[in-house]
Each structure stands twice: as C-alpha cells, then as structure tokens.
Design a protein that fits this description.
single chain; 112 residues; alpha+beta; 2 helices; binds FE2/S2 (inorganic) cluster
Length: 112
C-alpha cells in the first residue's frame, strides 16, 4: 500500500481507483467519480453493489444475508459498500447495467 491506499480494479469495465483501508470500496469509487458498480443504500441492505472479489484480501462489514448468504461470502461474493481492502483487489461487478442506465447521465440536475 502507498499513501493513496490500495488499487481496486473492476475487471468488466477495466476501471481502477484507489481505496484506503478504512474506506469502503463503493465509497472510494464514488469519491473518484467512477461508476463501475451500481450504488444503492450504501448500508449493506439492498444488494445493488454486489461484486465478486477475484483476488486480494479484504474484510466485510455487516451484509444482508438475503443478498450475500455466508456460503456465497466464502466464495468471494461481497457488497462493495461493506467491502474494505487489505491488499490491492480485483473485483467483478455482478449486477449488469441495464440498457437504460446510460440515460442516467442525461438526467437533469435539480437546482434549487
Ligand atoms: S449499496 Fe445497498 S447493499 Fe451496497
């Protein structure tokens, strides 16, 4: 690890970003303006940010058993919002972006 944390690589998109050990992978991704994993509740409950960890060491905080049962967790499934790296990680987003998702960037910003 260097001062900027660990390197996280999302293999389907090829995107990489840095993540500190006390920061969740999802939060690091958002902070660096990447969108390779869908963002939902950010609290381990909705399952939107589900990924498979292909390589690296990590810790998971509390995750909904509905989305990641213990068996699946043993096989590397994790919720990115509850995933904290201990080494560089390779992850794969399990939730494919739907065909309409590219429209998100066309959404109007709500200004007050
Ligand atoms: S964003 Fe909802 S479980 Fe991670």
């Amino acid at each position: 690890m260097n001062h900027a944390g660990y390197e996280i690589r999302e293999t389907l998109s090829g995107q990489t970003f840095r993540c500190l050990p006390d920061q969740s992978v999802l939060s690091a991704m958002e902070q660096q303006g990447k969108r390779c994993v869908p963002v939902g509740c950010r609290g381990g409950g909705c399952g939107l940010c589900k990924v498979r960890v292909l390589s690296g060491t990590y810790q998971c905080h509390k995750m909904s058993c509905n989305h990641v049962p213990p068996e699946a967790a043993k096989q590397g499934l994790a919720l990115a919002c509850q995933l904290f790296p201990q080494t560089d990680l390779s992850i794969e987003c399990l939730r494919r972006q739907g065909p309409g998702d590219h429209n998100n960037k066309n959404q109007q910003e709500v200004s007050s």
